[in-house]
Amino acid sequence: MKKRLKELAALVGGRILGNEDIEITGVASMDEAKQGEITFIAHPRHISKLEKIEASAIIVSKDFNIQYKEKNFLIVDNPYLAFATLLSHFSQKAYVSKGIDPKAWVSPSAKLGKELTIYPFVYIGEHCEIGDRVTIYPGVFIGEDSSIGDDSIIYPNVSIYPRTIIGKRVIIHSGVVIGSDGFGYVKDGKKNVKIPQIGTVVIEDDVEIGANTTVDRATLGKTIIRRGVKIDNLVQVAHNVYIGEDSIIVAQVGISGSTRIGNNVILAGQVGVSDHVEIGDNVRVGAKSGVAYDLAPNQDYLGSPAISHREFLKASLLFPKLPEMKRTLTEIEKRLKKIEEIISLKGKENYK
Asked: Are 147 and 129 in contact (CB under 8 A)?
């Protein structure tokens, strides 16, 4: 594929400094880009590398002060976003259906869309509904009464339990388990009695779920992942959890049951969330934090238990001083004890 720089500028809403008719054949990193390719500079500190960059064009922010005229620049508001858009543009291939492999097992009661690609050793249960242009890789199990929307991709060895609802353009990576039982037990003396998990899972459009993540079915009702949510690898989403639109859940996050997460929330790596917690819209929680209480919207949090980012930074400044503060406190206690002894002795003398 070849595109002129002015065509790419129109695609990402940028303006050109240099030759707008130069042809671009692909996208590459700053260090690896060659003639005919486009790359990007996301931070001003990399401007010093301009002379060494061999790319035919460079994506930069409109905030950069570009003095180097020997290169062709595509100037945009957000270089990362423009780079991602162009990378998708050059890497995407037209979808071509490969049909249903005879080694796949599809229930006669299943409703199948058009232009499917279903690989060997796929199992599609009774009364399932598969939309158009869906790709299902080997080793996938889809339980009865489940549905998958148009243009979704299910990678190898995914297990989708019965009655799961998956929307359009959903990407589910290898090893994901959706709809397994929530972790619910009640004590009868020393015995753990299982609480039946009879709810479902609903995954809306444009969601992506990373490898080896698990999403448990609800005890009653639904576990819901709203439109546009992106979930990394190795994440645990428990029963009856609600995740709002466009949220990002990073690797090794654990979300306990009946937690409600707002829209556009970011949970960084290894965040742990207690059960029945509510996290407001636009919240960002830093890595390894523990969320034990409700978090108000539009704020950043850090620590375990998680507190506001500003308060955590204040507390962090005190951590290195704690040994010195302890020594000072011990010395004060000793002095106070001596003062009390002196006062006590003077009191006894006055009494005599």
From this structure: yes
